[in-house]
Design brief:
Blueprint: H1 3-13, H2 21-27, E1 35-43, E2 49-55, E3 63-72, E4 78-96, E5 110-116, E6 132-133, E7 148-149, E8 157-164, E9 167-176, E10 183-186, E11 192-198, E12 201-205
Length: 207
C-alpha cells in the first residue's frame, strides 16, 4: 500500500483528537485492561503550538507511537506537525508462585501481577479452563500464551462432542497428545478425533 494510502487509512481509523499526548495514547490503547504512560515526546514543529493530539495507530505494547499534532502558529493560523511518543504499556498478568513441572496443572500455582506489554509476547491475564504448563516453569515466571496448554493431560478421560448441524453425539474418550491450539482424543473403538476445547470438552464439528 502506498504511504499516502496507509496514512489515510490510519487517520480514518484513528480515535478523535485529544488535548494531550497522554490522552491521545490512552484513547488508542487497544487492550481494554491495560494502561499506558508517555515517557518521552519528540518531534513536532517549532512555532506550532500544540492544541490537539491524535495517535496514528492502535497502541498494543510498549514502544514508539506516531502522533499527529494540530495547533496554531504565532499568527493564530492552523498548523500541523507530527511527533513520536515513547510509551510504556502495562496490564494484568499472571506469575507463578513456585516452580511448575511441564504438564502440571497451573490452578493454585499462579497469582495476579502487573507486567509490561512487550511486542511479540502476549502476557496471560487469565487461565483457561484446565490449564497446564506447556513446559517446566521456574518460580516467579510471567505467563505468556505459549507457556500454557488447556484441557486434560494425555491419558485422562474427556468427553467428545460430535456436532453435525443440529445433531450432537457425546462420547467418553481418552485425551492424547495434539498440536498446539487443538485437542485430540482416542474413542473406545480406537478412532482418533481432533477438535477444539470448549467448556472442558472436545468439540468436533462435522461439515
Amino acid at each position: 500500500m502506498p504511504a499516502a494510502l496507509a496514512l489515510a487509512a490510519a487517520l480514518l481509523a484513528a480515535p478523535p483528537p485529544a488535548p494531550s499526548a497522554e490522552a491521545a495514547v490512552a484513547a488508542a490503547l487497544a487492550p481494554g485492561d491495560a494502561r499506558a504512560r508517555v515517557e518521552a515526546l519528540r518531534g513536532g514543529a517549532p512555532g506550532c503550538a500544540p492544541g490537539a493530539f491524535r495517535a496514528l495507530r492502535p497502541v498494543l505494547a510498549s514502544g514508539e507511537v506516531p502522533l499527529q499534532v494540530d495547533g496554531r502558529d504565532a499568527a493564530g493560523r492552523p498548523c500541523r506537525a507530527f511527533a513520536w511518543a515513547a510509551v510504556r504499556v502495562t496490564g494484568p498478568a499472571l506469575r507463578t508462585t513456585r516452580a511448575v513441572r511441564g504438564g502440571e496443572p497451573l490452578a493454585g500455582a499462579v497469582e495476579p501481577d502487573e507486567a509490561e506489554r512487550v511486542a511479540g509476547r502476549a502476557a496471560l491475564a487469565r487461565l483457561p479452563p484446565a490449564a497446564r504448563a506447556a513446559r517446566a516453569l521456574p518460580a516467579g515466571a510471567l505467563l505468556a500464551g505459549g507457556d500454557v496448554r488447556a484441557g486434560p493431560a494425555p491419558g485422562e478421560p474427556v468427553q467428545v462432542v460430535v456436532r453435525a448441524g443440529d445433531l450432537e453425539i457425546t462420547r467418553e474418550a481418552r485425551a492424547i497428545p495434539c498440536v498446539r491450539g487443538r485437542a485430540c482424543a482416542l474413542l473406545p473403538g480406537g478412532r482418533r478425533v481432533e477438535g477444539r476445547l470448549q467448556d472442558g470438552r472436545i468439540l468436533v464439528e462435522v461439515p
